[in-house]
Structure formats: structure tokens, C-alpha cells
Amino acid sequence: GAGVSQSPSNKVTEKGKDVELRCDPISGHTALYWYRQSLGQGLEFLIYFQGNSAPDKSGLPSDRFSAERTGGSVSTLTIQRTQQEDSAVYLCASSLASGLPSYEQYFGPGTRLTVT
Amino acid sequence: SQELEQSPQSLIVQEGKNLTINCTSSKTLYGLYWYKQKYGEGLIFLMMLQKGGEEKSHEKITAKLDEKKQQSSLHITASQPSHAGIYLCGADIPSTDSWGKLQFGAGTQVVVTP
């Protein structure tokens, strides 16, 4: 079946512009996660959604970052007034559910964001 | 916070040889994941371990979680060029009310030479 898809695969933007990154999870997966991978910080958790519950935003680095998930499926990560330190690969993952015992998380190919 | 340390940072192995990567935590691991990543690509799920002493195998890759649930190892038998890449261990971040988000080790880069 189809895996997690993300778009665009690459995005180059000017400092100060807003960007939107999209994630399509695996069909039927109720949990969706956003992570960021950068050279200096490795792979970091940003935010996750589980069903209709309020998202866990504890990993968002600043209030310039926000995400929404419409209809329990597609998610959009928005970065406002981008800064050069936002340059990274943004990875989305989904799982059947979340909680203990743990559920396998499947990752998309990522969006490489470059802020010039 | 829980830190995940991977060792070694990188290794070069001759094709056909075995290799082992370790992932260590100072705290109890809940849901230990192993992923593989090729440069510029997403993470490929390999295995997930949850119970102390658990061991899983897929093709030539075996992963174990120790009894204390603080260390995991990934072992590749008779390595092939297709095994080259970056191996990442991840674990559930302990929480009182929000389970599912993962933290990751820094990764181990594996190079397989002819």
C-alpha cells in the first residue's frame, strides 16, 4: 500500500517568507508526527497529532512554527518568517495509534527546506 | 531528559563481515526503534522492541533489547553493500500523558567495502 508522502520534496525560500509543508499519512493511521533533522541537532521531535485530541506541541522551537491536521488525515506544517536556522529536512511519520505499548512509526521521504 | 547514545559513530566493514551497533540510555527504554536512512532519504523502519530480553530478526539483521531495557544492539551478519547507510535508534520519550513522540540517537554511519 501507499506509504507516507510529503510535498514538496525540496523547498528554497528567502529569509522572512512563510512556508507550508504537507504530509499525507498512511490511510487509517490516526497518529501523525513531525520531526526535523538538521546537521547540528540530529533528529528532533516537533509536534504530533493523535485522533481528535489536542496536538502535543512540546517540540516546536518557536511560535513561528505551527501545524494543523484537517479531517484527521493530511497535515500541514507552517513556518512563518523563516530564518536561516530553519533550514533542515522536515520529516513526517504516522502510526496506527499512539501510546503504550508502542506502535511502529513509518516515515515519509521528507521535505528539504533551505532558507537563503 | 533521556539521552540516547549510539556507538560507534561510524564504522567501515568489509563485505561479508559482521557488525554490531549499540544504543544506550541512562533511563528505561519504552518502545525502542531501529531505522535505516540513506543520504537524502527518509527513514526506513527496521524493527521495534518493547520487552526486556526481546530479540527480533529480519533477514540478516538482528536487534536485541537487554533485560534492564537500557541498551539495545543491532547486529548485521555477513554484511552486503545494501547494508550501507545511517542506522538510527529511537525511543519513546517518557511522558505522564503523551506517549508516541520519539527521540533519536545521533546515528551510526555504516560503510561496506568490497
Topology (SSEs and partners):
The complex is a heterodimer of chains A (116) and B (114).
Chain A: E1 5-7, E2 10-13, E3 19-24, E4 31-38, E5 42-50, E6 65-69, E7 75-79, E8 88-95, E9 106-107, E10 111-115
Parallel strand pairs in A: 2-10
Antiparallel strand pairs in A: 1-3, 3-7, 4-5, 4-8, 6-7, 8-9, 8-10
Chain B: E1 4-7, E2 10-14, E3 19-25, E4 32-37, E5 43-49, E6 55-58, E7 61-65, E8 71-76, E9 85-92, E10 102-104, E11 108-113
Provide structural commentary.
The complex is a heterodimer of chains A (116) and B (114). The radius of gyration of chain A is 14 Å and the shape is globular. Chain A is 0% helix and 47% strand. Chain A has one domain (5-115): Immunoglobulin-like (Sandwich), CATH 2.60.40. Chain A has no helices and 10 strands. In chain A, strands 2, 4, 5, 8, 9 and 10 form a 6-stranded mixed β-sheet that branches. In chain A, a hairpin with a 5-residue loop joins strand 6 and strand 7. Chain B is mainly β. Chain B has a single domain (4-113), classed as Immunoglobulins (Immunoglobulin-like), CATH 2.60.40.10. Helices cover 0% and strands 54% of the residues of chain B. Chain B is built from no helices and 11 strands. In chain B, the strands form 2 sheets. In chain B, strands 2, 4, 5, 9, 10 and 11 form a 6-stranded mixed β-sheet that branches. In chain B, strands 1-3-8-7-6 form a 5-stranded antiparallel β-sheet, with no helix packed on it. The mean pLDDT of chain B is 91.
